[in-house]
Amino acid sequence: MKPVLSKLLLACGLALSLPALADTWLIRDARVFDGEQLHARRSVLVRDEKIVDADFRGAAPPDARIVEGAGRTLLPGLIDAHVHAFQQFELPLLFGVTTQLDMFTSVSVLQDMNDRMRRHDNRTRADVISAGTLVTAPDGHGTEYGMTIPTLTRPEDAQSFVDARIAEGSHFIKIVMEDGGNRFKFKTLDLATVRAVIAAAHKRGKLAVVHIGNLANARAALEAGADGLAHLFVGRGLSEAEVQDFVQLAREKRAFIVPTLSVLESVAGLHADELLADAGLTALLTNEELAPLKVNFGQQPVAAVMTSPRQLVAALARAGVPLLAGTDAGNPGTQYGISLLHEVAALAQAGLTPVQALAAATSAPARAFRLQDRGRIANGYKADLVLVQGDAASDVTALHHIVEVWKDGTVLTEARQAKQQQVAQALQQRQQGYAALPDGGRISQFTPEHLGSALGMGWMASSDQMMGGQSQVDLKVLEAEADGQRPLDIRARVATGFAFPWAGVAYMPGAQPLQPADLRAAKVLRFRVKGDGQRYVVAMLSSGSRIPVNVGFATSDSWQEVALRLEEFRGVDFGAVTMIAFNAGPRAGDYQFQLADVRLVSQ
């Protein structure tokens, strides 16, 4: 190889291996919310990864690319103070969220993100500052996701447990105080162990943040020395004395609170309808990415249970207790990035001023989590910026109208445009027509040899054992009934050991397990059933959702036909159904029912 050509190829190889250098940008004559206060008119100069002049004056540098800010608001990159980052790492940036504070993810994700940020090679993803593995009891909240994690039982082991998390790369320590609700129960850490973990974290200079589920645990965590609470809690209202006592305690302990109104609304069965109705926002989300916003933890709306958290948010804001905007994205009713726009609006509706609500998503989480390089528009800070149309400091819904996003000084115009094109193309393909259903709509073909179907891969036993539970199910095809259909006999033993125990039979409409299938031609699910008189559920899951939507049905000792309109399964994407299951649970005990002639029909 000739020396000149060899040097040229080497230079090209180095260019491809190194991250692209960011440009120089001048955002000129914008309203600037610097993380704490609004400046009516300022220009901000960015060079490479940093803000070099937060109040630039004079002629534009000759190498600067100029963005006009008139009629617009420039803000620091938004910070979501409560997520579970395990997927869709590029998505937050499209909505201006440049940093996520993660409350529980896998060690591999934690270490990969730490490595990316250490190399300054994370321009295409939101930064993730993570607790890594949370601190919980055996069979406690956090153990129900089908992954094995270490757990803690004794205060004497708290220091070694915390040290192990720090060695893995955890930035702070997340602790669980959660015993569940009326429908399910978790084991939880005792107060002595919680105190020991908080002390162990503080000994190593780390923050200790506590997940709580009720007022008593919230007070106990603060009294034990927690730096902050990762949630508030639902309830139909607190007394004035309860509110004031809690606020006073939070002030005395100098704690911060992450209300997570978005996920609490999901528990209450409420949807972020303004997000789903905004075509400019949904143009950045595929149907799979929209799916989590359409389903909730609570399947029936009970708005009254949002009274308690909204009471507390208003009182905490008045008292000056730091409130951080966090969504609990990764859970039903939320989605990375976009849900923070709703969270900021929800905080404003609960009693924060627009400026306070914006600070809750910028400077407040940066200050609380000791992130000294972000959350502000100031000299030397990271060039993580969001430019929106309108005056966001007067109306936080201006955050819906993003003009531009910068991550580490790199503009994301092309990424946002590419995502819009991807979504538009997928929508066009989807509008070309529905997939055909089997003749007569029957999806059950039960024989002793095979639980088959004319559509998809067929049927299989399903239980919470796949998530580490202990429920069991036995399936047996019986002799044909008078109409010639062989029924499937399902005998289930639902056992405690998983938060939401179940056992039953699942139909997979795709060619592989959990592969999506287009069932939009169907309007009704019909089936024949008889059983032990107990109630069961049809559970339906679609692509992008991790928790199925359930609709109940009753059984008796004689055959009956059940017809469920698919519109009852609110939030399911019928163009991408991955599973239809017939389940016993969640009450522990023995169940028996028979299923036959299952059909998906147009009426």
Total domain units: 3
CATH architecture of the largest domain: Alpha-Beta Barrel
Mean pLDDT: 94
Proportion of beta-strand residues: 25-35%
Parts with pLDDT < 50 across at least 5 consecutive residues:
1-21
CATH homologous superfamily assignment of the largest domain: Metal-dependent hydrolases
Summarize the structure in words.
The chain is of the alpha/beta class and 603 residues long. It folds into 3 domains: 21-74, Urease, subunit C, domain 1; 81-379, TIM Barrel (Alpha-Beta Barrel); 439-601, Jelly Rolls, CATH 2.60.120. Helices cover 26% and strands 26% of the residues. It contains 16 helices and 27 strands. Strands 1, 2, 3, 4, 5, 13, 14 and 15 form an 8-stranded mixed beta sheet that branches. A 5-stranded antiparallel beta sheet has the order 18-21-26-23-24, with no helix packed on it. A 5-stranded antiparallel beta sheet has the order 19-20-27-22-25, with no helix packed on it. A hairpin with a 4-residue loop joins strand 1 (24-33) and strand 2 (38-47). The longest helix has 18 residues, at 413-430. The protein is globular. The protein starts with a helix and ends with a strand. Residues 1-21 have low confidence and may be disordered.
